[in-house]
Amino acid sequence: MSLRLQAITREEHLAFVRTRPAASHMQVPSWGDVKPDWRAESLGWFDDGGDGHGAGGGGRLVGVGLVLLRPLPKVKRYLAYLPEGPVIDWHAADLAERWLEPMLAYLKTRGAFSVKMGPPVVVRRWSADAVKAAIADPAARRLGDVEATTYEPDAVGVAERLRRMGWRRTEPGGEDGFAAGQPRYVFQVPFAGRSLDEIRRGLNQQWRRNIKKAEKAGVKVVRGGHDDLPAFYELYAETAERDRFIPRPLPYFQRMWTALTAEDPDRMRLYLAHHDGDVLAAATMLTVGSHVWYSYGASTSRKREVQPNNAVQWRMMADAHELGAAVYDFRGITDTLEESNHLLGLLRFKAGAGGEAVEYLGEWDFPLNRLLHKALDVYMARR
Description:
InterPro entries: Acyl_CoA_acyltransferase, FEMABX, PG_Glycine_Bridge_Synth. The protein is of the alpha+beta class.
């Protein structure tokens, strides 16, 4: 029997997320406040046939999702997007009938013409040593073509169920594996069951040397607040120019800080590396449950020899460990291994922290109205 799906309050949504070991930071209610161009709604899956009038109508809440609704220009129809979600039992044998069909039916009544989601399902992993060997191998062009260290057998079944329903994987539209949506490949350092000394020993020699250099040079990493976001932004704008990406505006980060910290004071943190009165590097850190993400990083080209980036990362890793993190997540990496690729340096930096490259199932689309879905594809391609 399919589950009952309905809109729920932010409080119900957040209470459910708190019962989970972790969920994506894009699946908490406050993330909707970060995206004012979208209309956000919290969805709840209930495990019995209540009367449909709120949680009080009966039933136990067994899954949640933050759906962002983006209006199509000139018509009252929406693209429905559940980034890195929803938070449901992805490995259920009856995933289609019990979980996803009610979601599609509900979103259709909300005026959605297309649904996009990002199942938080891991497909395979490559150890840091395997990534290092792949980068050194001139025959290896893409990480996805290299033998993985471990495979998650259940992921194939999830993908098969989605295809049978009519879902289609979104092909990466961005550069070098960085899609317009959320990254399919990320780099993570497992923390569960490891002491901070063990994590430090897992760093490569270059990382350990750079952390020591920063300490010796007198780099001080401090936690900042809302008033320090302009200092972060100055470095971020410089980083964007240097690394050839389009920066988000300062008000985006200010809105992000206000929204996330109102929900939980530790949801978002800001760290800044100071040296002799200069701010040389800064980064934001996000936390939901036992999962911690390095979110945005920024640095100046000045005084790079004092290694402020490694200093910031190590402080964040130490603080994440103290918070009880099971995973420290460096977020997106390129899956392109060619030496000419300007993102390869970032992959090398992240792989130096030990840990593993992780491939997720990627983002998937379901067209509820094929004509409007196709029109959106054409519009996005022209952009």
